[in-house]
Specification:
Elements lengths: L11 H4 L6 E2 L5 H11 L3 E6 L2 E7 H10 L2 H4 L4 H4 L13 H11 L3 E6 L2 E7 H7 L4 H7 L5 H9 L4 E5 L6 E7 L2 E4 H6 L1
């Protein structure tokens, strides 16, 4: 494997998903959510007469759900909340280019196109399945929430269990501090 600024040697077309799940622009968000659940995917391509019109992701649906009522979800069309600017990639591009493009636009998915025709779909998950060593490169692009805290907890010799805190009586993650089994809140208060 080469550095993140150089080609890796694996082409997008070699690892892209070819079984596309598409919906027309008029499909309701509620129907999109049901289809995503049924197909166990996190996004759908919006196509009309074979032309890519957009992408709708689970994040888009969650955003709409927080802004609208459930009734409205059956009336809102997929094209209404899909990002207007489409970012795509060609099948001959190196996956290092795909990772950079995903980072630049803060996307985890890219439609793969030839002459405006969608032929596949590439996700960060696809890339990491084929080349797990790229996790280090991808990690630099996509910040893992609470990354430093998670790493510190994983490296800590301090172990925890779930139970009732001897100090406050709450059920929580417990730590053994000086022979006393206490929750994190009580531990921080010491």
């Amino acid at each position: 494997m080469k550095t993140k600024n150089k080609p890796i040697g694996i082409k997008v077309g070699e690892i892209m998903t070819r079984n596309l799940i598409t919906v027309p622009p008029s499909r309701s968000l509620l129907d999109c959510a049901k289809l995503m659940t049924k197909k166990r995917v996190g996004s759908l391509l919006i196509q009309e007469e074979g032309v890519l019109k957009g992408i709708i992701t689970e994040k888009d649906i969650i955003w709409a759900l927080t802004k609208k009522s459930k009734k409205d979800l059956s009336e809102i069309k997929a094209s209404d909340i899909s990002p207007k600017k489409l970012i795509t990639i060609k099948p001959g591009a190196d996956i290092s280019d795909a990772i950079r493009k995903m980072n630049r636009h803060k996307y985890r998915r890219l439609p793969v196109v030839i002459k405006d025709k969608v032929i596949g779909y590439l996700t960060l998950k696809d890339i990491l399945k084929v080349e797990p060593a790229l996790f280090d490169i991808a990690q630099g692009y996509f910040q893992i929430k609470e990354e430093s805290q998670k790493l510190a907890r994983a490296e800590s010799p301090e172990k925890f269990e779930i139970g009732i805190c001897e100090e406050c009586g709450n059920t929580d993650l417990l730590y053994n501090v000086d022979g006393k089994i206490i929750c994190e809140s009580c531990k921080d208060a010491m």
